[in-house]
Design brief:
- The protein is of the alpha/beta class.
- It has one domain.
- The protein contains three helices and nine strands.
- The protein has a nine-stranded mixed β-sheet with strand order 4-1-2-9-8-3-7-6-5, with helices on one face.
- Strand 5, helix 2 and strand 6 form a beta-alpha-beta unit.
- It is globular.
């Protein structure tokens, strides 16, 4: 995959909109900022589609990778955006870093830890915060902000 991909994930209460530009994007931040909620919404949409009450818009497939079968699932996932939560220990392994290098997917990794095995740009480390642009509405609009840069 090459290029930038716009992604919108929303339900009646929460809205995320951001652009993925490189093969590895890292999302960091404090607890309760919406990182895991984002991944849960993507996972729910992947399993149940539009009947989940979640709207996901992207020109490429989006999946959440987790569990012991991560390598097998990654082997048949192509040209997709792969989201991974920090509770998955495999993101710290050299084996995972090798798979990422060979992959044609983009990866969005939610973690507070450093990932020395992966080479990612300091410009692609983001946090999530509530957008002040839409303050006062019932729906919560979240925005990504660049941590370094």
């Amino acid at each position: 995959m090459k290029g930038a991909y716009e992604l919108t994930v929303q339900n009646k209460r929460i809205h995320y909109q951001f652009t993925i530009k490189r093969n590895i994007t890292v999302i960091r931040g404090d607890s309760a900022t919406g990182k895991t909620t984002l991944l849960e919404m993507i996972e729910t949409y992947s399993q149940n589609g539009i009947s989940s009450g979640i709207d996901l818009k992207c020109t490429v497939p989006c999946i959440v990778l987790h569990g012991g079968d991560w390598k097998q699932r990654l082997s048949y996932t192509h040209n997709s955006i792969v989201f991974i939560d920090e509770c998955n220990d495999f993101i710290r392994r050299e084996e995972f870093a090798s798979e990422v290098k060979r992959s044609d997917n983009y990866f969005v990794i939610v973690t507070r830890d450093d990932l020395p095995n992966l080479s990612y740009s300091v410009e692609e480390i983001y946090g999530i915060r509530m957008s002040k642009q839409y303050a006062g509405l019932k729906k919560t609009y979240n925005e990504f902000y660049q941590i370094y840069g």
